[in-house]
Amino acid sequence: MDSSSTRRQVTRQKLYEAAVTLIAEQGFSSTTVDEIAERAGVAKGTVYYNFKSKTELFEELLRHGVGLLTASLRAAADETEERGGTKVEALDAMIRAGLGFIDRYPAFTQLYVAELWRTNRAWQSTLLVVRQEAVAVVETVLREGVDNGELSKEIDIPLTAAALVGMVLVAALDWQAFQRERTIDDVHSALSLLLHGRVSGRR
Amino acid sequence: MDSSSTRRQVTRQKLYEAAVTLIAEQGFSSTTVDEIAERAGVAKGTVYYNFKSKTELFEELLRHGVGLLTASLRAAADETEERGGTKVEALDAMIRAGLGFIDRYPAFTQLYVAELWRTNRAWQSTLLVVRQEAVAVVETVLREGVDNGELSKEIDIPLTAAALVGMVLVAALDWQAFQRERTIDDVHSALSLLLHGRVSGRR
DNA sequence: ACTTTTGGACTGACTGGTCAGTTCAAAAGT
DNA sequence: ACTTTTGAACTGACCAGTCAGTCCAAAAGT
User: Residue B134: which CATH number?
Assistant: First the structure.
């Protein structure tokens, strides 16, 4: 993460890690600052020395995590681009990147989904910005695909982007929570089949 | 349940309605029983006369809501069956039914998604049962479709069911939260296009 | 070399408020 | 007669945020 490994950075990182799992399991409100501090192996005061409030800690956590996700999606898209792949291939690569992210940071994903559609919460505006960054990456690829004729002009870009993201998110969380025995490749090919429209039996 | 007393049922219904919107907005832990009672226009004592605890109220809410959803999905599937429609048509009808449900009970959907993948919570077992009921309806249709050759034998039924449910859920929540101007038909056709594999530009 | 000062990082007991759940006598509803 | 609801007061656990003080390594002073 942050290259300048000052003492402070190390502490913040420990706090992120402690907070993300606790909040994913219990939700924001029923996770106490004492718990976070204890899990991070740090005194409660340290939390407040490093963050203005419990909410601010959480918001920075969100920014941090979504930053990692969008970076990973963009990398997948760019890499396909460089290889001269099609846009559908880019989408496929992004699905895989998304699954990889969720596999590596399941707690973060859980927490993100749980908070995303809540209204009236302190961090709504942060979430909105951060969501748009992630969805925009998918929308861009869809738009390019429509422009070069590879994708149907009929598609509704924002809605399709949302549906694709949702498909990946929910399938992956379900996999993590209820179907642990599957491999990431199982999940990827199930989603790939849907993306390529090969669910109905023709061919 | 106790079909005897109508008065009690009315009170419980008012409490469900109050609780569902408040919890969807704020989450379970930061919603107080006093708030729920006030919004329902009922005394606090009444809450505890009708439910053992705040948690129990919430669990019954979950059961109640998912009951409505599965009933609506099953109705859509059965109706298509009776009309002699194909399985893909049944899936399409279920997507529409799902969207209709989310449109009618957005708060419930929000709350369900927020809680579904949490681990270590009091009501986890309730959620697990209730989730399985809903997903099973989709899995059944997929299985029948594979059996009669209408759907590809390649598909992984549990994963595809999860992905389809996720697609609908997330697209609909996004629609409700961020793209209110769209109609339910916009959303339905975007999802339908995906289901039929007509995203790639061929015809 | 040696003492002293500085300041960033951390500590943990404490405070003030909040909230689930209880109690109960009286009223309302059926 | 009986079930259900009311309303308001009360308890005790719990928790976000505070703050006076500790720790320590490196800089400054002698």
Answer: 1.10.357.10
Nucleotides of C under 7 A from a protein CB: 8-14, 18-25, 29-30
Q: Is the four-CA dihedral B104, A168, A108, A76 of positive or negative sign? A: negative
- Which residues in chain B are contacts of A163 at CB distance < 8 A? 167, 170-171, 190-191, 194
pLDDT score at A4: 38
**Total Cβ atoms within 10 A of residue B13:** 12
CATH code of A1's domain? 1.10.10.60
CA A35 to CA B102: how far, in whole Å? Answer: 36
Residue B200 in domain: no
Same domain, yes or no, for A93 and A184? yes
What total of structural domains would you count in chain B? 2
Question: Residue B33 has which token pair?
Answer: 């029983």
**Considering only residues 97 to 156 of chain B, which have any Cβ-Cβ distance to chain A shorter than 8 Å?**
110, 113-121, 128, 131, 149-156
* Dist. CA A146–CA A135, nearest whole Å: 17
Same domain? For B183 and B85 the reply is yes
Q: What is the mean pLDDT of residues B156-164?
A: 92
Residue ranges for chain A with pLDDT beneath 50: 1-4, 203
What are B103-106's contacts with CB under 8 Å, separation 24+? B103/B172, B103/B176, B103/B184, B105/B20, B105/B65, B105/B68, B106/B24, B106/B173, B106/B176
Please state, in angstroms and as integers, the Cα–Cα distance from residue A46 to each residue in A11, A30, A51, B2, B29, following that order. Answer: 8, 20, 8, 53, 25
Q: Is residue B202 part of a domain?
A: no
Establish if B190 touches chain A: CB-CB under 8 angstroms.
yes
Query: Do residues B101 and B162 share a domain?
Result: yes
Measured distance CA(A8)–CA(A10) in Å, rounded = 5
What range does the domain containing A156 cover? 59-195
Query: 3-class DSSP state for residue A101?
Result: helix
Q: In this structure, are A31 and A89 located in the same domain?
A: no
- Please check whether residues A28 and A84 belong to one and the same domain: no
- Give A107-157 pLDDT, tens digit per residue: 999 999 888 888 777 888 888 888 898 899 999 999 999 999 999 999 999
Does A116 lie in the same domain as A74?
A: yes
